Amino acid sequence: MNYFKDKICWITGASSGIGEELAIQLSRLGAIVVLSARNRDALFAVKAKLEHSEKHYVLPLDLENQVEFSAHFQSILDKYRRFDILFNNGGLSQRSEVHETSMEVDRRIMEINYFGNIALTKTVLPFLRKQQSGHIVVTSSVAGKFGFFLRSAYSASKHALHGYYESLLLEEAKNNIAITILCPGKINTPISMSALHGNGEKHNEMDHNQATGMPVSECVIKIIKAVSNKKKEVLIGNREIYAVYIKRFLPALFWKIIKNEKAT
């Protein structure tokens, strides 16, 4: 059975990368997609790629502007009268060492990746609880399982998501609300382009790790399978995901290996 057919799926970070590809593949499966990110023009460009593009909805959203979330969600309910799946995918990466990273950058990354994320979940949660069904999909990272060079604030924000959503998973099981935490590794997306340096400036480079990473289409196929099966957590990537298991079972070996990995 097609889990996504006719479901209303709200995707943040939908203007590029994993979010864009999710929208494309979900539309092929018959889902109705709500596209959110800050860049309105980019969202309309993505919408034009979707099957039956007239069914889908562009809803610009800034994860730092949380006071607007309720109005945004109400506009979805006004348009479709129902709601099914939140893909909490929007976020911001980092490329700076701790000693050179301002507190402003630390706070901004946490504001977007953690507080913006959970605020959107809190916005849709009462509706899902009332209807006694729904699914919240959260894009964390392999960096949410262990720290890495140049990613201190980014990794911290992703670690925080795991604690939050594992708790929510336990609390809302009784209300038939599923939670899936995605942990992508090196995926071929432009995430490094908008990553922040310690002074707040954009990195504006396509890192080798992203350029040579898993194709985003393959990543999203794995995401769709995991969500369809209501997996609680899924690691997605190439050999880098094995570091999670090495750290768990052979921590001394993990620290020997990880110090030699390239940060970009």
Question: Could you please describe the fold and organization of this structure?
Answer:
The protein contains 9 helices and 9 strands. The protein has 264 residues and is α/β, with parallel strands linked by helices. The protein has a single domain (8-258), classed as NAD(P)-binding Rossmann-like Domain (Rossmann fold). The strands form 2 sheets. The chain has a 7-stranded parallel beta sheet, with helices on both faces. Strands 7-8 form a two-stranded parallel ribbon. Strand 5, helix 5 (152-172) and strand 6 form a beta-alpha-beta unit. The protein is globular, with a radius of gyration of 18 Å. The N and C termini lie far apart (40 Å).
Q: Give the structural class.
A: alpha/beta
The tally of beta strands, per DSSP, is: 9
The CATH level-2 architecture is identified as 3-Layer(aba) Sandwich
> Could you state the oligomeric state of the chains shown?
single chain
Shape: globular
| Order of secondary-structure elements | EHEHEHEHEHEEHEHEHH
Neighbour order of strands in the largest sheet: 3-2-1-4-5-6-9
Radius of gyration: 18 Å
Low-pLDDT residue intervals, each spanning 5 or more residues: none
The number of domains: 1
User: How much is the average pLDDT?
Assistant: 97
Name of the level-1 CATH class: Alpha Beta
Main sheet, how many strands, which sense, barrel?
Answer: 7 strands, parallel
CATH superfamily: NAD(P)-binding Rossmann-like Domain
Helical proportion? 40-55%
CATH topology: Rossmann fold
- End-to-end distance: 40 Å
Number of helices: 9
